[in-house]
Amino acid sequence: MMCLNCHAPIATHGVSAPENIELMSEEVQEGIGCDWCHSVSGVDEKSIPSLKSAPSLIKYGPFENLESPSHGISFNPLFKSSEFCKGCHEYWNKKAGILTTYSEWKESKYFAEKIQCQECHMPYVEGELVEPGVKKSLKKINIHAPPGGRSPEQLRKAAEVKIVSMRKENGKYIVEVEV
């Protein structure tokens, strides 16, 4: 259940234990989709995930002054903040960190330099705001296929590793590195 809270939040929304997810609608099985993320109105750190999201005809996002023929649109600055990412990427069980991606970011040079998660994981690209069949709308948008933490591209930007020393002892290599 804990995994589904972030990986398939629609399946767990408002229920203590979801029914068989394979019998649910395609939208629910999709896991994280447009409707879930763009229904986030805030953060509630007492819940898991800590994102406040509910089905609504208002969709939230990082752009101001937009209109849609399908639903209301509301600017939400949370979409430009790492606080949004914290909703699924930070989880503590009592005093033990289970998933501490947000805490790690807060201790990094990126936090010190005021670089939000979205700047690396959802960079701006030229693209469609919505499905072309719904409305033609080109704008600089955040990429929605973000490279993860194991992405070689992200790792090249994230860590500098230097071999300080290397020796062979009893048939094994002992390597000291500096990160």
Topology:
Elements: H1 2-7, H2 9-12, H3 26-29, H4 34-37, E1 40-43, E2 51-53, E3 58-61, E4 72-75, H5 82-89, E5 91-93, E6 96-99, H6 101-106, H7 109-112, H8 117-121, E7 124-128, E8 138-142, H9 152-158, E9 162-169, E10 172-178
Parallel strand pairs: 3-4
Antiparallel strand pairs: 1-2, 5-6, 7-8, 9-10
Quick structural overview:
With 179 residues, the protein is of the alpha+beta class. It has a domain at 147-179.
Structural features, described:
This protein is α+β, with helices and mostly antiparallel strands and 179 residues long. The protein has a domain at 147-179. It is 27% helix and 26% strand. The protein is built from 9 helices and 10 strands. It has helices at 2-7, 9-12, 26-29, 34-37, 82-89, 101-106, 109-112, 117-121, 152-158; strands at residues 40-43, 51-53, 58-61, 72-75, 91-93, 96-99, 124-128, 138-142, 162-169, 172-178. A two-stranded antiparallel ribbon has the order 1-2. The longest helix has 8 residues, at 82-89. It starts with a helix and ends with a strand. The mean pLDDT is 78. Pfam families: Cytochrome_C554. This is Cytochrome c-552/4 domain-containing protein. Residues 3-39 form the Cytochrome c-552/4 domain. InterPro entries: Cyt_c-552/4 (IPR023155), Multihaem_cyt_sf (IPR036280).
